[in-house]
Amino acid sequence: MNNNKRAPLPGFLAGLEPLSRRSFLRSSVLASAAVTSGCASMFGRRNAPEALQYHSLNQDEARVITRLTEVMLPTASYGLPSSTEVVPTVKNVDAMSQRMPQQTRELLGLGIWVFNNRPMVSFKFSQFTSLSDDKALDYVNAMQEGSFFERGLMTTLKALVALNYWRDERTWPGLEYHGPVTEVWGVRRLGNAPLPRA
Q1: How far is Cα 99 from Cα 165, in angstroms, rounded to an integer?
Q2: What's the predicted TM-score (pTM) here?
Q3: What superkingdom heads the lineage (predicted)?
Q4: Are 154 and 114 in contact (CB under 8 A)?
Q5: Tens of pLDDT along 131-147?
């Protein structure tokens, strides 16, 4: 006896029966990317880099990363070095994005554009860079708990900012990190020496 028999889908959903959960998720992500790409083209995501200050990030992207850095890392509250004035977090992000493959770099630019313009739906037509500190933090938290696409985008941007702040030696005392043990303990570097065998 077959217990997996289901009622047929309504006419407008006919043809979706063979679609598995994985293929449905893949299709959803691709559809979201296609719609986002179309919106970016329609509303004019700027690609021209600002040559005076950054090598890879354009002016709009740098503004978004700067604002996200301020919201994510309220360093003054914890006595840590400023994430915008002391530690060059945005310039570190710029240097990292400069070394990315072209396709990855384009996807990052698209993700930053989406992140900045997405609040226009729920925050009275304001971009992320225009939100107050409280609303910007609410937006970041909402993205972290949002759809699969929103969570993935937020995780990527947070990792990008956090990594490029904490990699600076001036932030290490705040973590009680004193640098690589090879330097602290004076361990001699062996280069690419083979591992010992038992």
Answers
A1: 18
A2: 0.67
A3: Bacteria
A4: no
A5: 999 999 999 999 999 88
